[in-house]
Every structure is written in structure tokens, then in C-alpha cells.
Amino acid sequence: MENSTSITDAIWSQFGASLDMLENAINMCPEEHWETALDFWYLSYHCLFWTDYYLSTESAQFEPPKPFSFSEFDPSGMKPERTYTKTEVLDYLDYCRQKAIRLFKELTVNQMSDPWINSSKNYTLVEILLYNMRHIQHHSAQLNLLLRQTINNAPNWVSQAKKIADK
Q1: 67 phi and psi, to 5 degrees?
Q2: Most distant CA pair in the chain: distance in Å?
């Protein structure tokens, strides 16, 4: 019997693995490095804010969960008013993972060509998902480099996310 994987399963497998890699990097960051000039906390938060935004099929209706704000939309690059704790950031990661799982559970091949548009992007849904995954990997790599530079250790590569149950 042939083991078939749909395109949505394949994209989820890699998207979810990207989230797992980000989570592993955040978990490995020692508390003493969380809030330093290295900006580990901010890079983690920034990555998750945009992950959340790009997972919103209607970009104009996006609203981050509390305690997070729209600070990332500030054109001057202002950081949030306070440092988010590792627990808050990990909770945000779980929120994003659950949002992604809901999206991928419902996603059909036909919906992949649906438009995803904001003031600077005119993409299809599949393109914004791939763009989002690349963004997560970019910041996961940054965080892994910071971990190597500060504690001489970094998480292992994650090749695939776990399958979504009841797809």
C-alpha cells in the first residue's frame, strides 16, 4: 500500500518543524541571556508576532493576543513597552502553533491560491505560508547562532513536525 502525503500535509510538516526549532532555541536560552543587548527575547517575540500575522487569512482583521501589542507595525521600529518573559513568548509560540494547526486542518489545495494581500504584499495563501516559514527559519538560525556564541550549544535540527491529528 502506498503512503501518500498531501501537499498540505507536507507544508505543515515543514512549517511545524520550523516552529519546533524556534521553540527549542527559546527553551535553550538561559535566563541570564534572555534580556541582554543580544535581544534574544525581542528576536523571539518579533518572529512570533509576524508568524501570527502571516497566519491570519484576513490581514486587516489581525489582532495579537494579550499582552502583546501592535508595536511591530510601528514604522520607526519601536520595541514593545516592556520585555516579554520567556513564559509569555513560549505561550505565544503555542498560540501560533494552534492557529497554524487550525489553518492546516481546514486548508484545501483550492484555497492555496486564495489571495493574501496587505499594503506591501500581494501573495497567494500558499506563498505567504512559505514566506512565513522562511521567516521563522531565519530567526531560528539567528537564535541558534546567539546560543553558540554565548553558551557554545544549540538545539538539534528538526526534520519534520508531528502529523496533525484528525486531518
Answers
A1: -90, 15
A2: 56
